[in-house]
From TrEMBL:
InterPro entries: MFS_trans_sf (IPR036259), PABS (IPR030374), SAM-dependent_MTases_sf (IPR029063), Spermi_synthase (IPR001045), TPR_rpt (IPR019734). The active site is at residue 602. CDD domains: AdoMet_MTases. One of its GO terms (cellular component) is cytosol. Coiled coil: none annotated. PROSITE patterns: PABS_2 (PS51006), TPR (PS50005). TPR repeats lie at residues 773-806. Belongs to the spermidine/spermine synthase family. This is PABS domain-containing protein. It holds the Pfam family Spermine_synth. GO terms for molecular function: spermidine synthase activity. The chain crosses the membrane at residues 38-55, 67-86, 106-127, 148-168, 174-192, 229-249, 261-281, 293-313, 333-356, 377-396, 402-420, 432-448. GO terms for biological process: spermidine biosynthetic process. It comes from candidate division WOR-3 bacterium.
Length: 818
């Protein structure tokens, strides 16, 4: 039992390390799909190499407990070395990139592999070595290994859950890493007291060899061919399994909110399926015909995945009976991904949990080669997983798309099943496999035709008449342009995140992000835009007398989609001033020496995967790339944040820039930061080259807080950092609908007089009417947020009464009265 507990703790610490290292390395190498894929692949390859080498050592070492002790200490110390190196890694990476003249996925893979090699190599040897220590009878290999594998994976489930849901927010990334290190070191100290050389009973080995089972005789020709076949099967199954994982994550990212918690939930369901399958094998299946069981597991996996692929786009509809429950934000964020992940992922991973112990049991029936056998299967499975991850991420997903890719992989599962019974010469099962595979191939031809996977809001609302204008599955995300024919409103999605809609308020705020920086630096020439979206902000910038606009976009596929928004982006995709740069904006800043007059950043909400673009370290990067009189403009969400989280964003930004202002664009906010304060000249508000921003008084009252008030507003909040990303890892309080109202009322309670930051105002009385009208207008928006339309209209009418010059209020009121 102590060794089972060591296996559990090893899995716990291993998944903690994987999540933490992947997160930290993404800050260095970028949060692109390419970077994340190669980082995880490098991690897994280290595990596989450790499995095959240390598994072989486990069979020959005289003191396996002593070796396991060294592995635990080595893993902890290796992780500590990584923790110490991480702060230096951005400079190391930047130095290498400059020498080589550019970065690449191969370079990221090599650096990640070298950095993580020592601890991952040692982690990989843990499972074969504990198996060697724990399993002492040949007849109990199946039961013992499946039990150990299940507990090791269960440790991973709990480790992933605790880190993903609690620890990163509560104590930070570095402290979470230290906890994982302490677990490894604690296991090492525990094992120090149990260093008793393991003596195996050789008569059991002799019995197995003399029993006529030539698979266990290393001198037999049959063993040599068998030796090649099952590691090959293990590799193919690993290839399919990780391929499925990438396809499933892409599918679920289209159905679900792309919050950090969502991906933690998907990972936990994936691992829980494996745990359940392993426990079920241990309890119920270990004495059945193993070849037949392996065949059934592959056929069942292929059939289930194939059938779900046919109905993939309709699966969210199964949750409609409980949609009243899922309308509550907390359940939408946590329950929805759990249920959909269970429907898509759990059954196949349950069968995977049966498959891996089966492979190890079939191939390894001799205690003398137990560690080597498990290590070889583990290595082959891991290499297959790495190949599947890289192959799907870089090639198969862009080439075939999600639905076709899943169907092809399901057919591969069927082929693996047929291959197993063919080699084992089980004619009855072989005929059944051929028949079922033929039926599934015919069905898959029809499944190939329906290959669109759409966000749940499209085609699922009775008030809308949706049509898809553009659909493209790229390796970076699925890009969709949709139009509601009832209203003419177009929306661009990347997976399930709306990049922008063509509603009035959405367009206005992104145009403000393009124009406002020029009020502080009217002579700006070189501009950086992080987050192209569909190009509205970039097009606003291009209307000014700029020399060059570098535009960095993490999902380059949106550039093609931007053509459907040419009426609001001035055909910016054809503008020669714009240099389009695919990649991660933060990573671009880390690697470039270029400085800018303006940096404008419009990321998605920090809880939806863009948290690293809202931390102090990111704002310092921006500040370091500004020229004299340079300006940073940052989108500031007012929704899906608690009041303290919103204040944390404000405090973080204000802690970096000497002069900070906060602007309101209806239901959205904008942060402007610069090092050189000077009052805005009111006439400059009148000449912004955009009809949507032609009212200078409206712009003047959009300025809500200056630096002094920003600091006062946020004084009790904590700073949002890379180590403790408080805003990305939100709490249930963040999801309350009334938060937007609390935030906007808190801002207005401290608002400055516009003339404090703006000079040469032509008509102060008119300005006061705009201030009064704005307060009534925002009160109307608050009632709109509460779904109280009558009171909303009443407040809009009050706004128009005190501020009749505001044509915008009149336009919006008329629209609501239709």
């Amino acid at each position: 039992m102590p060794y089972l507990f060591i296996g559990f703790l090893s899995g716990f610490a291993c998944l903690m390390d994987e999540i933490i290292w992947a997160r930290i390395l993404s800050l260095v190498f970028g949060s692109t799909i390419d970077a994340n894929t190669v980082i995880i692949s490098a991690f897994m390859l280290g595990l596989g190499l450790g499995g095959i080498y240390l598994g072989k050592r486990a069979d020959s070492v005289k003191d396996p407990v002593g070796l396991l002790t060294l592995i635990q200490f080595g893993t902890g110390l290796g992780s500590l070395i990584i923790l110490l190196i991480f702060p230096l890694l951005p400079r190391i990476y930047s130095f290498i990139v400059k020498i080589l003249g550019g970065g690449s996925s191969i370079l990221i893979f090599i650096l990640s592999f070298v950095l993580m090699l020592i601890p991952t190599f040692l982690m990989g040897g843990t499972l074969p070595l504990i198996s060697k220590i724990y399993i002492k009878e040949r007849q109990k290999i199946a039961i013992g290994f499946s039990q150990l594998y299940a507990l090791n994976t269960l440790g991973g489930v709990i480790g992933a859950g605790i880190v993903g849901y609690f620890l990163i927010r509560a104590i930070g990334i570095r402290s979470s890493q230290l906890l994982a290190i302490l677990i490894n070191l604690g296991c090492g100290f525990f094992l120090l007291g149990r260093r008793i050389p393991l003596r195996l009973k050789t008569n059991l080995v002799k019995d197995s060899i003399n029993s006529g089972d030539f698979r266990n005789n290393p001198d037999s020709n049959y063993f040599l061919s068998y030796n090649r076949f099952y590691p090959l099967i293990a590799g193919l199954i690993g290839f399919v399994s990780l391929g499925y994982e990438i396809f499933w994550i892409r599918t679920l990212s289209i159905f679900l909110a792309n919050a950090s918690y969502t991906f933690t939930t998907i990972l936990i369901i994936y691992l829980l399926g494996i745990v359940s399958g392993s426990f079920f094998f241990y309890k119920r299946l270990s004495k059945l015909n193993q070849i037949k069981l392996l065949f059934v597991a592959q056929i069942a996996t292929g059939c289930y995945v194939l059938i779900t692929a046919f109905f993939l786009n309709n699966l969210p509809g199964l949750l409609f009976p409980i949609r009243s429950i899922l309308e509550k934000p907390f359940y939408r964020i946590f329950l929805t991904p759990g249920l959909l992940s269970f429907l898509i992922v759990f059954i196949p991973t349950f069968l995977m949990g049966i498959t891996f112990p089966l492979l190890c049991t079939i191939w390894t029936k001799n205690l003398d080669i137990l560690g080597n056998g498990i290590g070889r299967i583990y290595f082959a499975n891991t290499v297959g997983s790495v190949t599947g991850s890289l192959g799907v991420g870089f090639l198969l997903l862009p080439l075939f798309g999600v639905v076709r890719g899943i169907i092809l992989f399901a057919l591969l599962n069927l082929i693996i099943g047929v291959l197993i019974v063919k080699v084992e010469k089980q004619k009855k099962n072989l005929k059944f496999g051929y028949l079922l595979s033929g039926i599934m191939v015919i069905l898959s031809i029809f499944g190939m035709k329906n290959n669109l996977i759409l966000p749940p809001s499209i085609y699922r609302s009775p008030e809308r008449a949706d049509r898809v204008l553009y659909y493209k599955e790229t390796k970076d995300g699925t890009v969709i342009v949709n139009e509601d024919r009832n209203t003419g409103v177009k929306t661009c999605y990347v997976n399930n995140s709306a990049v922008i809609g063509s509603t009035y308020d959405a367009i206005k705020v992104v145009k403000m992000m393009g124009h406002l920086p020029f009020l502080f630096n009217p002579k700006a020439k070189d501009v950086l835009v992080i987050g192209f979206g569909v190009g509205v902000t970039t097009s606003a910038i291009a209307r000014h007398n700029v020399r060059e606009i570098d535009c960095v976009e993490i999902c380059p596929g949106v550039r093609e989609a931007s053509k459907y928004f040419s009426n609001i982006n001035d055909f910016i995709f054809n503008n020669p001033k714009v240099k389009f740069i695919p990649g991660d904006g933060r990573n671009f800043l880390q690697l470039t020496d270029k400085k800018y007059d303006i940096i404008s950043c419009d990321p998605t909400h920090p809880s939806l995967g863009s948290g690293n673009l809202y931390t102090k370290e990111y704002f310092l990067l921006c500040k370091g790339h500004l020229k004299e009189n340079g300006v940073v403009c940052q989108y500031l969400p007012l929704h899906r944040l608690s009041i303290i989280e919103f204040k944390s964003l404000v405090k973080t930004f204000a802690s970096v820039f000497s002069y900070t202002t906060i602007w309101l664009g209806y239901s959205h906010g904008i942060l402007i930061g610069t090092e050189n304060f000077k009052k805005i000249d009111f006439p400059s508000l009148k000449v912004l080259p955009d009809d949507l921003l032609k009212d200078p008084y409206w712009l003047a009252v959009s300025l809500i807080l200056d630096r002094e008030k920003s600091i006062q507003f946020s004084q009790e909040a904590e700073i949002n950092t890379d180590d403790r990303p408080l805003v990305e890892f939100f709490t249930p309080v963040s999801l309350r609908r009334e938060n937007w109202e609390l935030i906007i009322r808190s801002l207005l309670a401290l608002r400055i007089e516009p003339e404090k930051a703006i000079e040469n105002i032509e008509n102060l009385e008119k300005l006061k009417r705009y201030v009064a009208g704005q307060e009534f207008f925002i009160s109307g928006l608050i009632y709109q947020n509460r779904s109280q339309k009558e009171k909303m209209i009443e407040e809009f009418e009050k706004a128009l009464k005190v501020n009749p010059e505001n044509l915008e209020i009149k336009l919006i009121l008329e629209n609501e009265l239709r």
